[in-house]
Amino acid sequence: MLDRQGRVSLVIVGDTGSIYIPELPRARTGAGRLRGLRLLHTHLTDSLLSQEDLMDMLFLRLDDVGVLTVDQHGGPASFQHAHLLPGGTQPYMVHDPQGWDRVITDFTAQAQALEEELSRITADARETGSESGRAVLVGVSPDPRSVQESSLAELAELADTAGLTVAGTMVQRVRQLNYKFILGKGKLAELEVLALTANAGVILFDGELSPAQLHNLADITERKVIDRTQLILDIFAQRASTRAGKLQVELAQLQYTQPRLTGKNRAMDRLAGGIGGRGPGETKLETDRRKVRERIARIKQDLKALRTQRGFTRGRRAKARVPVASLVGYTNAGKSTLLNTLTNADVLAEDKLFATLDTTTRRLRFPQERELIVTDTVGFIRSLPKELKEAFRATLEELEAADLLLHVADAGHPELEMQLRAVEEILDELELQDIPRLLVLNKWETLDDETRLALAALYPAAIRVSARTRLGLDDLTAEIIRRIDWERML
């Protein structure tokens, strides 16, 4: 490893097939910066730059990587080098080999020119946010490109809710996912260059990465790698406000993290352990896993107590014979806004995914001397992480006591049919098929006349409302009164 003054910074000795590059300093890994080091290594055969060499250059942000071959006597023969190519269709440029004594490249000037180009490309990015808050979204699946792009659009909304700025996207349709890195080496190289030129410190994958994939990706790039599940869990952690919500989110995060705990080294092992002090003792990794298991057990006990307490509350409601209508639906469909409009409540309602997480209960009184309890639950989303389904089961148990489910949907969303299907699938998984449902098409004011006619024909039994303008609320309340079995409450 040589610095820009040509001084030897690091000497690495490998075998005839490969070398192992240790962790390098991170001092220059900011926006538009290269490492400040170039790799010059020797191949003991006539082979030139390999794909592994180019990957090392990309993921370590090296100024340059060069190979020097040797002749049969061990003397220098030919030289070949490569460097990044920011802004181009190819992620790097590989120069033709030449005699070792004919090399006239000024590597310092080359590195400075590359950094100037990187700085020019990322100038706008630096104005819009820091590197750690910028993310590149990646979609890899066998699905058609249109389906992947639709899913990435939703992922972009999730990223915005989490406080990330989308700096770029990459979509690849594959027959079968790469079990090791999810992407092939060529696409990984393109992804690294895209993240470099976009000044992104986060790579966000649409879908759930296996523990092995997450570990392998973290090994080859110095950027933070997260998947869709981890992003949703992070949003829930930011939004949870009640004790129950915080416990449920922590449980989901621990259950997600537990199989992904990996150890880098044994530096924090105990010096002694076991009977008579023999053996290395309990490793730091094993200690972390044990602590996670203990914490999961404690949280489950606390949630069980909360579930029992909520059961008493539902029992008191049942004795009072007050019917319950629960608002369910896809996230950001307008459930909280509808609750506020119906009951004059002041529940937080924002144009963001998962703006509210905790169950909210309000009373709704009718002119006919009748009253109803309306509950607002956490929004659903397609491919809801299984950890969240289990953690929020205590919250969603409120739905089991409902006399009517108001399925609120965003009528103006381009993926309306998909969202309706996703909610119905989750309700079926929760075994709520026997509870009557009423479809409420919200945000009706956002539609043109042609779309209104089409949706009215497609969903004739649905109630069309606008929670913001109060359009259709009289029809909604009348239909709720008609659907509730009031005689059973007497």
Question: Secondary structure elements and their pairing?
Answer:
Layout (H helix, E strand, L loop, with lengths): L37 E6 L7 H10 L3 E7 L5 E9 L7 E3 L3 E2 L7 H15 L1 H6 L5 E8 L3 H17 L3 E9 L11 H13 L4 E5 L4 H10 L3 E4 H12 L3 H15 L26 H37 L3 E6 L5 H9 L16 E7 L3 E7 L9 H6 L1 H4 L7 E7 L5 H14 L7 E6 L6 H10 L4 E2 L8 H11 L2 H4 L1
Parallel strand pairs: 1-2, 6-7, 6-8, 8-9, 10-12, 10-13, 13-14, 14-15
Antiparallel strand pairs: 2-3, 3-4, 3-5, 11-12
Question: What's the short story on this structure?
Answer:
The chain has 490 residues and is α/β, with parallel strands linked by helices.
Low-confidence regions: 263-282
Kindly report the spatial arrangement of strands forming the biggest sheet.
11-12-10-13-14-15
Q: Portion of residues in helices?
A: 25-40%
Broad structural category: alpha/beta
- What is the averaged pLDDT score? 80
> Alpha-carbon distance between the termini?
84 Å
How many β-strand stretches?
Answer: 15
Largest sheet: 6 strands, mixed
Residues in β-strands, percent: 15-25%
Structural Rg: 29 Å
What is the approximate shape?
Answer: elongated
Number of helices: 16
